[in-house]
Write a structure and sequence with these properties.
With about 220 residues, the chain is an alpha/beta fold. The chain contains ten helices and six strands.
Length: about 220
């Protein structure tokens, strides 16, 4: 198989692993404790880092915990889920193996902290496929801004036009697309409502890793 793209940047949560339902649970607990039941808030929080999420909740809804305390609590809950509950999506490992066999260089760019990303990837057996991990916290801003993709691309030694980005969230996919990257939309149940729209702007769509085709 000849690959058009020799560089690939992967999101992790919701893209390679089934973890977004756990992140949603963490956010739901905080929001419900604050009396917030507006589902649109989840769309606002989704591309944010953990620290940005905590800051947003404190600033907009007056959460009594400090941003640092909220961040620590959310990460602690997710750390246990990554260790014991989260699984790789079916076919993800085989797809990554195919890319590696075809000389594609890969990294992960995630909104989650680097230590959690590494823990998760090691737990599900995907860590070996990636050269490095970049967190939105590394560049200081979430995926509403293209800095994380440019940073990852620069570290890979690639140009955007030679690089494909795999994302499950429409907002993040739009950011990468506008920055000049090819984008593969990856289906996740937690983002089902935006799937059709995401597919219209993406260069490729992956509804199931077991049948994924990227030329």
């Amino acid at each position: 198989m000849t690959m058009r793209y020799q560089f690939a940047i992967f999101d992790m949560d919701g893209t390679l692993v089934d973890s977004m339902k756990y992140w949603d649970t963490v956010c739901t607990e905080f929001l419900q404790a604050l009396g917030i039941h507006d589902e649109s808030v989840f769309d606002i929080l989704k591309p944010m880092t953990v620290e940005q999420t905590a800051d947003y909740l404190k600033e907009n809804f007056g959460c009594p915990l400090s941003a640092a305390q909220m961040s620590e609590k959310m990460c602690g809950i997710m750390r246990e889920h990554y260790r014991h509950d989260v699984q790789a999506k079916s076919g993800a490992s085989a797809f990554l193996q195919t890319l590696r066999e075809n000389g594609v260089r890969m990294c992960v760019a995630s909104s989650s902290p680097v230590d959690l990303v590494e823990l998760c990837l090691r737990s599900v057996g995907l860590y070996e496929y990636f050269e490095f991990i970049v967190s939105a916290e590394t560049v200081g801003i979430g995926k509403t801004d293209p800095d994380i993709y440019w940073y990852a691309s620069d570290k890979l030694g690639s140009m955007p036009e030679d690089t494909i980005v795999f994302e499950d969230a429409l907002g993040a996919g739009l950011t990468a697309k506008r920055a000049g990257f090819a984008v593969a939309a990856v289906y996740d149940e937690t983002s089902a409502a935006e799937w059709t729209e995401f597919c219209t702007i993406a260069d490729y769509s992956v509804s199931d890793w077991r049948t994924a085709q990227i030329d």
